[in-house]
Amino acid sequence: MNTLSGTWSWLTTATHWSGPDGIGNRLGEHLVHTVVCLLLSCRIALPGALVLGHLGKGGALAVNISNIGRAVPTFAVLVLLLLTPIGTYGQWSTIIALVLFAVPPLLTNAYVGMREVDRDVVRAARG
């Protein structure tokens, strides 16, 4: 059976659309994970990035240190978190892993966004 017909067969089977393993339930779980991870990541990364971007000091170092995290394989972090006591608390190991990988791009982009604001706009806002 090829992949396309197998996918079509799975999608057209009624048992995959309802119940605890149904598509609707899985979609809801996915959305909850996404919102929780995004909120936690923003809560961690944005305040520091905005302060560093405003001050203009130490931001490059913070961005470079946070970008080191991008080199770590996602699956390895998830497996390591599952093997620790955190892995016994339901989905928290997944949420922590996703937050760890969402912080570097948020920190970098918020910092760069603050640093790239036109100086004339900043002077006008202060005036």
Describe the protein in words.
This protein has 127 residues and is mainly α. It has one domain (24-116). Helices cover 74% and strands 0% of the residues. The chain contains six helices and no strands. It is elongated and about 65 Å long. The protein starts with a helix and ends with a helix. The mean pLDDT is 86.
What is the domain tally? 1
Question: In angstroms, what is the radius of gyration?
Answer: 21 Å
**Helix-strand pattern, N to C?**
HHHHHH
Give the helix tally: 6
Largest sheet, in brief, is: none
Labels describing this entry:
single chain; 127 residues; mainly alpha; 74% helix
Summarize the structure.
By secondary structure, the chain is an all-alpha fold. Helices cover 74% and strands 0% of the residues.
Secondary structure layout plus pairing:
Elements: H1 3-11, H2 23-55, H3 59-68, H4 74-83, H5 92-115, H6 119-126
